Hints:
By secondary structure, the protein is an all-beta fold. Helix content is 2%, strand content 49%. The chain has one helix at residues 132-136; strands spanning 7-12, 24-30, 37-42, 45-50, 58-64, 67-73, 79-87, 96-99, 105-110, 113-118, 124-128, 141-146, 153-157, 160-164, 170-175, 180-185, 192-196. The strands form five sheets. A four-stranded antiparallel beta sheet has the order 4-5-6-7, with no helix packed on it. It is globular and about 70 Å long. It starts with 6 loop residues before the first strand and ends in a 13-residue tail after the last strand.
Amino acid sequence: TSPDGTRLFYWTPAPGVWTRPGPRELMRVPTVGGPPELVLVSREPRQLECSQGPDSLCVLAEMAGDTVVFSRVGRMGGRAGEVGRIRLREVLANWLWSLSPDGSRIAVVERDTIRVLDLRSHQASTVVLRNAEEVLQTGEPDDISWGPLGTGFFLTCGAVLFYVDPVGQARKLYRADPALFVPMASPDGRHIAFSQANGGINAWLLERH
Length: 209
């Protein structure tokens, strides 16, 4: 969703067919309805996030070899310049990042380490999980998001939701099988929304006549 809440972003082809080669188109459509608009085209996109502060911005992550390049998305479309980059320790299909609520920092999680990039100073710092063994035994990190005050992180690993404080101590908040994704705190920090995977199977008996 755009910072002002008037546009919805989506990718085409949809994420479910991202294994197919070829560029992806970032589109946006008015929340009140209307024709979609092309925002930009990317060959290796890895997520779009928007901040909600007074200096709101939308940031796109794209792969360039072993480096993640973060670019600002212009209000009229297209890229409005690079805001930062981080070189990954290991290039994996599933790595995760999150833009802070005020749009000033980016967090990238790689297994037991959260790396924080300050978009103003371009300096990077690290938060290493103090109880990494306890966290990772529930599964590899699936998603990360900032706490509402920008001082901690929500992390999902398999079926468990954790809160990670600024010094790297993870505390288990919730568990729900088979898996949790996309944790997101409310602006006042009192609630957390997340997606939960569910599966169902219907069995049909066909009688032969």
